[in-house]
Amino acid sequence: MKTMIKRLCIFAAGAAALVSAALATSCEKDETQEKYVYILDNDKNGIQEVSFNTAGGTQDFLMYSNYGSWKLVPTYEEDLEWLSYWPTEGVGDARFSAMVEKNTTAYQRHGTLNIVVDGLSVATIRFNQAGDEPKLKVNVKESGKTVSVKGETFTVGVESNIDWVAELVDPADASWVTIGDFTPVSQTFTCAANPGSEPREAQVRIRAYGTSVSCVFAIMQADRSSAFEEAEKITVADLLAMGEGKIARNVYVAGSVISDRTTRNYPVAYSTGGGEQVNNTMFIQDETGGLWIEFDDAADNTCDLNQVVTLHMYGQHIERDAYTNGLKIAGLSSTAVQSAVAGTPVEPVVIDDLTKLPAYENRLVTLRNVEFALPYGTLVNINEGVSYLGIKQGAAYQASADYNDLTIEYGHYLRDAKGNTAKLYTTWSFTERALSMIPEGAGDITGIVNKRYKCDVYDGRDQMRRPVESWCVRIRRESDITNFKAPAASRLSKTVMQIGPWTDNAGAMQSVTASVGQGQLKHSVGEDVLGSTSGNTQQMYLAWAHARCTAATWDAVKNAWLPAYGNTKGVQYVAVMAQGWWKNTAAVNTDTDGCCWILSNLSTKGFTGQISLQFTASSNTAGPMYFQMEWADTDNAKTWTPIGNEYVASNWHNSIAAPEYLFVLPDELKDRESFSIRLRATRQRNASDTENTASGTSRIGVVRMSCLDL
Which InterPro entries match (predicted)? Predict the structure, then answer.
């Protein structure tokens, strides 16, 4: 915002008088009249200088002039990078505005805008802007950088809003550390081989010019006794048993690469600010266990699937990952890779019980005879039309993210023959994510087992956000999904009832009825559905589900999936939407303050196995966050029985998707002639975690009730 305007009130009063006189005699042409130009603000005060803080802002100007044609021209053309104005030219009296962009640098900015007539400046306006606080950050861990005893060249990334310089704290270290080339965002260092019998360490300072701001880190180099040639081979299990911290023993491990860097289906780095993903991850496995490795630089991740690699681990760091709560090698140096040669594929461990996944962390397994509990869309059902995938989301979007998947990954529920579940995760960057639709039968899935550690389950009893350990599988390639046969022959569960998915939003629906089995989807506001992508608080309406309804192929030339993604029939499914979720005066099917999705006239007659309900759902930023599933004999029952605890609807603007939900229903609903289930908004609190408002939208993409005979 603007912080100061230099007002010239006496000047303005004179300007007003002169302008009045000029207007009074405007009917008479006077070639000898003295030329004038007056610049005023909106309050008719004279203005020659404007100052802004770092946020920038806009200033409007009023100009009186009898010069005729004029142009606005900055004194220095480079000021156009942060100063803009409109219109750029005119005739006589005029209004114009100028905008100053946000200043993220630590430098003050000054610029002058000239009112130019016939090539000469007849008036000027001075613009001043404060500089931001100096910021400086380097991508070196607090523990410093360990380099090979043989010598090494490496590059340090620098984030700064001010010019900086790299220097050695002790100039004597220049005998083995050379400060090399630099760019505005990086600095290269070259370390000579250590010929001695003692380790050595140098301190490097990255210093911001003209300030006290600096970053200091250590470069550490072992002596010849820590060279790879002297290292002891140990197993992955023995390495992880060392626990967190710097590896002080001179050891190495060897294993087969079980990840595929070319298809890029890796875990996402999780933080309270959102998700990020870089292509620096590799998983290897030996006969004792699997090892998660993150390279210091993604450019060093060059090892291919099935290669046998030898890694020198001396001086590397074992850290506990915040997202998985598992151990990993963080910031592996490029020189740690001693060899990478062709090998044979690792034989995965075959399991048919998903509860056994914790025994195989970071290892390759084949899940035998499993099914997708909700066969829907492709491997990644995410809105492909947004531009902020993978970028950290604002704090307002994080409330529901604690319990749902992040912006750049999608989880499909898998189920085994015993009714156990786990999720198959694929990320936005996965290069084979849309090649086929999710199969409806049962078959085998091969992938890497990863742990997750986040609030997947909301504990409504004490309203605590408590991290929960869960386990998932990540495929390497689409071909890791095998042996899925025709649904009738191989599906583990039977479809008791299914509503949706829908592929056409062209026409209105008088009711939403089950395509399989018995049931109807209603809402508190009624049964009718508008056939459009926008609605009101009086009816449900159709909106895009952002899940492809047909497979796609990757066009490397166009750098896009085809058919092209968009709000287009035949490309993506549509969903049923409703809004106005709290004390909606149009509500007819509820006696509570919170509106409901209602699954009416359901029946499980003849089904005696494990009954579960699966669906996709989400709310927008202003939509309801908290829901409770309940059941009763009829829609108009006065008493409803809770099913489990309160659950959280994902914020659409965080996950950019409608995540899958799976609930096992109570035994009372087995073999039952008729009953209803409702999903009720329980609080006037939206998915941005804002109290006293839940007026936005929430959607459902598909609903399936299934029975698994155990």
Answer: BACON (IPR024361), DUF5689 (IPR043744), Ig-like_fold (IPR013783)
